[in-house]
Design brief:
Elements lengths: L9 E9 L7 H14 L2 E10 L8 H11 L5 E4 L4 H7 L2
Parallel strand pairs: 1-2, 1-3
Length: about 90
C-alpha cells in the first residue's frame, strides 16, 4: 500500500508571469492565487513575478522555485495558467 504523508499546512509559492511589460496582470494573478491558497489550507511562503516568454527555460525565478521544491523547501508552486511551453520545460 502506498503511504503518502503531507506537511500541513502545505507551503505554497506563487508564480505570476506575463510575456511583455505592457501586460498589467501581475497583481490580478497574485491576488487570485493568494485567495485560493487558504481555501486549500496552504500557507503562501513566496511570490515571484517574471516577464518572460512561456516558451523559454531562461526564467531564473521559476528555476529557483523548482529547485526549492526539489529540495523540499516548498510543497506547491501555484500558477495562474499553465501554458504549453511551461509544461514542456518543467519536465526537462
Amino acid at each position: 500500500m502506498l503511504q503518502v504523508s503531507f506537511v500541513f499546512p502545505m507551503r505554497a509559492a506563487l508564480n505570476a508571469r506575463v510575456s511583455t511589460h505592457d501586460q498589467p496582470t501581475f497583481m490580478m494573478q497574485i491576488d487570485a492565487l493568494r485567495e485560493c491558497a487558504p481555501r486549500r489550507q496552504w500557507t503562501v511562503t513566496d511570490a515571484v513575478e517574471e516577464i518572460a516568454s512561456g516558451d523559454t527555460d531562461q526564467r531564473p525565478k521559476r528555476q529557483a522555485l523548482l529547485k526549492a521544491a526539489k529540495q523540499r523547501r516548498l510543497d506547491v508552486i501555484m500558477v495562474w495558467k499553465l501554458d504549453p511551453g511551461d509544461a514542456r520545460s518543467s519536465t526537462r
